[in-house]
Amino acid sequence: MKSRKSSLIVALILGISLLAACGSEQEAPAGDVPRQAEGEGQDMAPLGESAGNSVIVAMGPSSEPEAGFDPAYGWGAGEHVHEPLIQSTLTVTNPDLSIGYDLATDMQVSEDGMTWTVTIRDDVSFTDGEPLTAADVAFTYNTVKETSSVNDFTMLKEAVALDDTTVEFHMAQAYSIWPYTMAIVGIVPEHAYGPDYGEHPIGSGRYLMKQWDKGQQIILEANPDYYGEEIQMKQVTIVFMEEDAAFAAAKAGQVDLAYTAAAYSDQAVEGYELLSFETVDNRGFNLPTIPAGTKEDGTAIGNDFTADLQVRRAINLGLDRQEMLENVVNGYGTPAYSVCDKMPWYNPEAEVEYNPKEAEAILDQAGWKMGADGIREKDGLRAAFHLLYPASDSLRQALAADTQNQLGELGIEVTIEGVGWDTAYDRAQAEPLMWGWGAHSPMELYNIYHTLEDGLAGYSPYANESVDHYMDEALAASDLDTSYELWKKAQWDGSTGITQEGDIPWIWLVNIDHLYWAKENLKVAEQKLHPHGHGWSIVNNVDQWTWQ
Amino acid sequence: MRRMNGRQRTVLAFGAALLFLALITIAGQVFAKEAMATDFSRKNLAPCAAYPFGTDWMGRDMFVRTLTGLSMSIRIGLLAAGVSALLALFLGIVSATMGRAVDSIVTWSIDLVMGIPHILLLILISYACGKGFKGVVIGVSLTHWTSLARLIRGEVLQLKEAPYIKVAGRLGLSPWQIARKHMVPHLFPQFLVGLILLFPHAILHEASITFLGFGLSPEQPAIGVILSESMQYLAMGKWWLALFPGLLLVLTVVLFDVAGESLRKLLDPGSAHV
User: Which of A25, A29, A398 sits opposite B119 (nearest CB)?
Assistant: First the structure.
């Protein structure tokens, strides 16, 4: 009896100590939540009691600009575009995504599209008192061209200041959408720019950076000499937290506005309302349009199943985007039919009606006959593919899983697999991957659908001369309105393109609404459609937010 | 009813533990397909009769997912612990019989592997081997052999002085023949117990590295994946996602321990009185 008891006790102790040994590793991420909240409580004096003209906003940790507030290293002009706040830009994008002016007072482009002449205001100073001149503008653009590691400036040859208020951009190639680039590049002072500029930014924008505690928070203060509209929010504090910590912070009343995800949308937080903003933050997957093969470097490219145009058309018709929205984001989103829905360059011809019968008919006609196990076959080839998704993204995982279910009903076997970004780009050359896109610039169409030197588009193998041609023309157009029409034609010109009736090399599923918990008496100013990236876009116009 | 004696009870405990673990393993295999299935019409359900462990945000049945996850953990544990124990047996014997140079190399590598934190080495090896099933098995196998190797080396050093080994040497058997014919049978009980006691380690480490995102891909039903996903949903009050899988993991680990300890007592009754 004794031995049995002691054996049990030994077993229990062993088990517990084993757990304890490994538990310390397992619990680390969990422990983050209270620790972070505590830390913030200590470090931030005003937390939870915002005065009448200050606001505390919680964003995801990945929104913290790693390289600081330097436009050359992605601030505002990186993968996720937004207004740089600390710096001024030449142009701005209006709520309808047309172009307006910030520093610029006028812009002209030469007939051949190779020279842009921009005149700027003469009444603007940096926050250190020095006036902002065309020389600073030229310096900024020449600098980002030389050093930008995150954005492509190869279309620019050189920027030259003609006098104090006129700057000329000499282009390497015609680039009609240059105003959209000018809307995201913050102007830096030539006299105060150096390697540590990112950490000590000086600009002429609406806010100055007062304090940056890395990994925790950034405090912005209104620029007292700002030349534009009066700034309502005098102080903006941005805190960086994981989703669950941001939710906890909202529940505790510690932040005024916290980003959140659709998974939290069925929760309620007292004193807060759930704000939902429409976006072009889309999710979709690519379908390689060429048969399987290998590239020179040995990586696989192409896919025998998705190379069949009728298969791609059937997939596009056979996906119920509305159901997907309900399933995956609790209805917070809109169906997506292109990478640029609702943008001025969007061609509404891309829209399709969910029609599973038609999809099945297309597959039957194309020779994909239903096999005994419920999966179609054609000449011994199974109607099957791997659908990859980024392993860290549970929303894209759910979209992939729903796609798997819906296509399963059509007789297409989808296997989903989580992958890291280190291998995702290469594997997407041969297998569909669940992507997220959406930018305030038509250049995204070009990046996704236009061919590169090797004759195929970069992210997923596809080529169509006519599509290429329209986009080249669009870039060479002399004014934006003409270019919009050409971008639309690149999508569908009546006989060919990238839509359902065209080659349909990408399937677009949903635009994800960006959700926030906001204090009920906080009035968030009207938002333009948010681009991809659930981060700084929300504070694009934080200066016009008010408390009621 | 006649009371069972200690030995019978130990046999019973051993048998019950093994039976239960075998059941989990088999059930997990049977449900492997259901564990991957998503059904958004039943998402976020709290535990109920149809879904005793509830469902998650993609409507996956957490009961079958947990069973399959544990079954996968047990299979990874089996493979990794097996490889690890064989490695330990081989290195332990070689170290004690093949002379001083080999001995110092082996003890040096034992110290090396033991000197680096387990989980760190595991992550490194798993990542270098491309993560996934393969990465986890290789990672766990290559990090868990050290203490058993040390134990076996000690045993062999002792055995070498035993009269019957000395006699075998005088009779002209080579060290390798002696090791194979006379030492391995003697070491077998230690080896077996060591092997079974490696399981809980292997399983917990498999769970931790998958939890940290360096192991299996998130759509796989692995216990580490389940637990790390559940963290996100705790703040939303979905407690069942973490509780039941966690409890079952503890139970599995404890049962392996019970099995190992019982076996030790059966094979080496002297230790039962320590």
Answer: A25
